[in-house]
Amino acid sequence: MARFVRHNADLQSTKISEIAEALIAAGYLCLDDQASALGLPRSTTWSILHSRHKNSGLSASVIKQMLAQPWLPTLVRRRVLEYVEQKCSGAYGHSPQRARRFASGLDGYPSPRATKSTSSLDRAGTIARSASWVNCSTLLG
User: Fold this and answer.
1) Crossing angle of helices 42-49/2-25, nearest 10°?
2) Residue 8 placed within a domain
3) DSSP tag of 127
4) Secondary structure in 3-state letters for 44-56
5) How many domains does the chain have?
6) Which is more confident, 121 or 77?
7) Which range of residues forms the domain containing residue 21?
8) In this predicted model, what pLDDT tens digit does every residue of 17-35 receive, in sequence order?
9) Could you tell me if residue 120 is inside a domain?
10) Cα 138 from Cα 121, distance rounded (Å)
Protein backbone atom coordinates (compact mmCIF):
# COMPACT_ATOMS: atom_id res chain seq x y z
CA MET A 1 0.00 0.00 0.00
CA ALA A 2 2.76 2.47 0.91
CA ARG A 3 4.43 1.77 -2.41
CA PHE A 4 1.20 2.63 -4.26
CA VAL A 5 0.79 5.87 -2.31
CA ARG A 6 4.42 6.83 -2.99
CA HIS A 7 3.92 6.17 -6.71
CA ASN A 8 0.85 8.44 -6.72
CA ALA A 9 2.76 11.18 -4.90
CA ASP A 10 5.62 10.83 -7.39
CA LEU A 11 3.17 11.03 -10.30
CA GLN A 12 1.66 14.20 -8.86
CA SER A 13 5.07 15.73 -8.20
CA THR A 14 6.17 14.89 -11.74
CA LYS A 15 3.11 16.60 -13.23
CA ILE A 16 3.75 19.71 -11.12
CA SER A 17 7.38 19.67 -12.30
CA GLU A 18 6.09 19.59 -15.87
CA ILE A 19 4.25 22.85 -15.15
CA ALA A 20 7.55 24.38 -14.00
CA GLU A 21 9.35 23.05 -17.08
CA ALA A 22 6.65 24.50 -19.34
CA LEU A 23 7.14 27.92 -17.76
CA ILE A 24 10.88 27.75 -18.43
CA ALA A 25 10.29 26.54 -22.00
CA ALA A 26 8.00 29.54 -22.53
CA GLY A 27 10.84 31.86 -21.55
CA TYR A 28 9.85 32.63 -17.97
CA LEU A 29 13.22 32.10 -16.32
CA CYS A 30 13.20 34.24 -13.18
CA LEU A 31 10.85 33.86 -10.24
CA ASP A 32 9.28 37.29 -10.67
CA ASP A 33 8.32 36.54 -14.27
CA GLN A 34 7.07 33.06 -13.38
CA ALA A 35 4.93 34.41 -10.54
CA SER A 36 3.50 37.07 -12.83
CA ALA A 37 2.70 34.54 -15.56
CA LEU A 38 0.95 32.26 -13.07
CA GLY A 39 -0.83 35.13 -11.30
CA LEU A 40 0.46 33.91 -7.95
CA PRO A 41 2.56 35.43 -5.16
CA ARG A 42 6.29 34.79 -5.39
CA SER A 43 6.28 32.56 -2.31
CA THR A 44 3.51 30.34 -3.68
CA THR A 45 5.23 30.15 -7.06
CA TRP A 46 8.54 29.23 -5.42
CA SER A 47 6.83 26.48 -3.40
CA ILE A 48 5.24 25.03 -6.52
CA LEU A 49 8.36 25.21 -8.66
CA HIS A 50 10.59 23.69 -5.99
CA SER A 51 8.21 20.85 -5.09
CA ARG A 52 7.62 22.26 -1.64
CA HIS A 53 3.84 22.06 -1.98
CA LYS A 54 1.77 19.99 0.40
CA ASN A 55 1.23 16.31 -0.25
CA SER A 56 -2.30 17.17 -1.25
CA GLY A 57 -0.93 18.97 -4.30
CA LEU A 58 -2.17 22.20 -5.79
CA SER A 59 -5.42 23.52 -4.37
CA ALA A 60 -8.43 24.45 -6.46
CA SER A 61 -7.97 28.12 -5.53
CA VAL A 62 -4.36 28.11 -6.81
CA ILE A 63 -5.47 26.36 -10.01
CA LYS A 64 -8.24 28.93 -10.52
CA GLN A 65 -5.77 31.79 -10.07
CA MET A 66 -3.45 30.29 -12.67
CA LEU A 67 -6.20 29.58 -15.19
CA ALA A 68 -7.60 33.10 -14.76
CA GLN A 69 -4.41 34.58 -16.24
CA PRO A 70 -5.09 35.50 -19.88
CA TRP A 71 -1.34 35.62 -20.62
CA LEU A 72 -0.64 32.16 -19.23
CA PRO A 73 1.38 30.39 -21.94
CA THR A 74 -0.54 27.71 -23.83
CA LEU A 75 1.82 24.90 -22.83
CA VAL A 76 1.61 25.87 -19.15
CA ARG A 77 -2.18 26.04 -19.36
CA ARG A 78 -2.22 22.60 -20.99
CA ARG A 79 -0.07 21.12 -18.20
CA VAL A 80 -2.29 22.69 -15.53
CA LEU A 81 -5.40 21.25 -17.18
CA GLU A 82 -3.75 17.82 -17.41
CA TYR A 83 -3.01 18.08 -13.69
CA VAL A 84 -6.65 18.98 -13.01
CA GLU A 85 -7.92 16.07 -15.08
CA GLN A 86 -5.65 13.59 -13.32
CA LYS A 87 -6.43 14.91 -9.86
CA CYS A 88 -10.18 14.83 -10.55
CA SER A 89 -9.89 11.24 -11.75
CA GLY A 90 -8.11 10.16 -8.55
CA ALA A 91 -4.83 9.36 -10.32
CA TYR A 92 -2.84 10.88 -7.44
CA GLY A 93 -4.35 8.56 -4.84
CA HIS A 94 -6.79 10.99 -3.24
CA SER A 95 -10.03 9.59 -1.92
CA PRO A 96 -13.15 10.06 -4.05
CA GLN A 97 -14.43 12.52 -1.44
CA ARG A 98 -11.26 14.63 -1.64
CA ALA A 99 -11.32 14.51 -5.45
CA ARG A 100 -14.96 15.70 -5.44
CA ARG A 101 -14.07 18.50 -3.01
CA PHE A 102 -11.23 19.57 -5.31
CA ALA A 103 -13.52 19.41 -8.35
CA SER A 104 -16.26 21.41 -6.62
CA GLY A 105 -13.71 24.15 -5.99
CA LEU A 106 -13.28 24.41 -9.76
CA ASP A 107 -16.96 24.97 -10.58
CA GLY A 108 -17.31 27.20 -13.59
CA TYR A 109 -13.96 26.30 -15.11
CA PRO A 110 -13.67 24.22 -18.25
CA SER A 111 -12.93 20.56 -17.96
CA PRO A 112 -9.51 19.76 -19.40
CA ARG A 113 -10.98 17.75 -22.26
CA ALA A 114 -13.57 20.40 -23.06
CA THR A 115 -10.88 22.96 -23.76
CA LYS A 116 -9.70 20.76 -26.62
CA SER A 117 -13.27 21.11 -27.96
CA THR A 118 -13.48 17.46 -28.88
CA SER A 119 -14.61 15.18 -26.09
CA SER A 120 -14.61 14.47 -22.38
CA LEU A 121 -14.25 11.29 -20.38
CA ASP A 122 -17.41 10.24 -18.63
CA ARG A 123 -17.51 8.21 -15.40
CA ALA A 124 -17.17 4.91 -17.24
CA GLY A 125 -14.02 6.13 -18.95
CA THR A 126 -15.62 6.18 -22.37
CA ILE A 127 -15.47 9.12 -24.72
CA ALA A 128 -18.50 11.38 -24.63
CA ARG A 129 -19.20 14.67 -26.37
CA SER A 130 -18.88 17.63 -24.03
CA ALA A 131 -20.04 21.19 -23.89
CA SER A 132 -17.42 23.90 -23.97
CA TRP A 133 -17.78 24.40 -20.18
CA VAL A 134 -18.13 21.37 -17.96
CA ASN A 135 -17.93 21.02 -14.21
CA CYS A 136 -14.90 18.83 -13.42
CA SER A 137 -16.95 16.96 -10.81
CA THR A 138 -19.07 15.47 -13.58
CA LEU A 139 -16.07 13.26 -14.30
CA LEU A 140 -16.40 11.77 -10.83
CA GLY A 141 -20.13 11.22 -10.49
Assistant:
1) 120
2) yes
3) E
4) HHHHHHCCCCCCC
5) 1
6) 77
7) 2-107
8) 999 999 999 999 999 999 9
9) no
10) 9
